[in-house]
Amino acid sequence: MRHSLTTMKTARVVPYALLGHPVAHSLSPAMHNAAFKALRLPAHYSLLDVAPGDIPRTLQELQTRQYGGLNITIPHKEAAYQFLAANGQLTATARLLRAVNTVVFRRNGVMLGDNTDAPGFLDALQESFRTTPRNKTVLLLGCGGAGRALGLICALRGAKAIYLADLNLAARRRLRLAIQRAAPTVPVTCVSLDRARRVAADCTLIIHATPVGMHAGDSSLLPPESFRPGQIVFDLIYNPAVTPLLATAQAAGARTANGLGMLLHQGARAFRQWTGRRPPVAVMRRALLKALKARTP
């Protein structure tokens, strides 16, 4: 449901939410509620913990309750895609990635599913490094969820070659097949973690899309010799701001970025989808940094 400013000034408070399991750790409410306030829009964003299997019922219920839109996070992105493929509409990006992280409830009763993860990653890559995946040799650690989206978008945006590493061999194989279908000229190779450690130094872009590094005691998946000056290392984790992987990469001279920029830009794109308004990105970034600082010991 897209709202004009005039409509939203006279309307009730429109609810928005993030659906996930678990979901309490998310910083999304901080940035979206700050954006609504900055634009004086009567809306509120909250967190809803939804058990696996409950996505179809929840989407229908929230549409009935006149939610304006939703974000979808793990483990529900594929379930949302499957439901909306049969019962709603999908953007070309969502169809390509076969995952939904944004839902728009339109006035005509249609549910639209989109995926802003991949565009948000490209925005963050451009912002942090002034570059794109084109002509880069990419190592992707983690092939499920957001990792799948990033592997596909790197291939579609002209990566020179892609290495895929994941302990879940089925997820790794599915992503390889998806890349081969979407971008058949891009060489894609599945590798073990041991081989990933050996080929990493030859890669120009390393993307870390696993949870390793979020918890105290985690160590870097890659050793110091996997990194080198000039290399770009992008870790989707944003708390802690410097994961063991990023610390190891920085010590070797690589250029690094955490996942806060991707969180910001995928959220900004969702905000524009819901409201039709230009998102106040600077306001959203400040809100994220403030919320993250409050959670940092």
Task: Walk me through the structure.
With 297 residues, the protein is of the alpha/beta class. The protein folds into two domains: 5-115 and 262-295, Leucine Dehydrogenase, chain A, domain 1 (Rossmann fold, 3-Layer(aba) Sandwich); 118-258, Rossmann fold. 43% of the residues lie in helices and 18% in strands. The protein has twelve helices and twelve strands. The strands form two sheets. It has a six-stranded mixed sheet, sandwiched between helices. The protein has a six-stranded parallel sheet with strand order 9-8-7-10-11-12, with helices on both faces. Strand 5 and strand 6 form a beta hairpin. Helix 2 packs across helix 11 and helix 7 packs parallel to helix 8 (169-182). It is globular.
- Which percent band covers the strand fraction? 15-25%
Low-pLDDT residue spans = 1-9
Q: What integer is the average pLDDT?
A: 94
Largest pleated sheet: 6 strands, mixed
Shape: globular
The first-level CATH class of the largest domain is given as Alpha Beta
Count of distinct structural domains: 2
User: How far is the N terminus from the C terminus?
Assistant: 39 Å
User: What would CATH call the homologous superfamily of the largest domain?
Assistant: Leucine Dehydrogenase, chain A, domain 1
Number of strands: 12
Strand arrangement within the widest β-sheet reads: 2-1-3-5-6-4
SS field, number of helical segments: 12
Shape-level CATH architecture of the largest domain: 3-Layer(aba) Sandwich
Helix content: 40-55%
